[in-house]
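S.,

Sequence below, as promised.
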Amino acid sequence: MDIVIRPVAPGEYETLGEITAQAYLQDGLLTFGESDWYLGELRDVAKRAAASDVLVATQGDQLLGGVTFVPSPGPMADIAGPSEAEIRMLAVDRAARGRGAGEALVRACVDRARAAGCTGIVLSTQPIMHAAHRIYERAGFVRAPERDWNPIPGVDFTLITYELTL
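The prediction came back faster than expected:
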């Protein structure tokens, strides 16, 4: 059965929020675990969907994961410049990993960026997200160390940047 990428439905917000939150928690990506402030952001799919495009990967009736696609600078963009799109909060349910959902979500974002006439697409990731890095690199993204940044002033926490020129 094929993986289908489509916009998230409002009835799926809670499920996708929990998949995203659990992916970050289980992979040890939240500095403060269950008490990390970012956990609320990961769970708030409705907020993301109101300001950007949230896509899901499904297989049959199973929700595998999702991604936030920011087609241009705006409230959900962290680092996108003019004419750049941004990928945020890519997450796949641990039980569904290895089926190609993450790669399909990234490809869908690249296709949307091209269709929107963007000149590039950027994303931030943690240095320890090695599986995600492999997905990005297979899709043609390259490291852009000059764009690495710290989202939490006063805390030693750097996000690394990947970019793809379209």
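Residues 101-115 form the longest helix (15 residues).

Coffee later?
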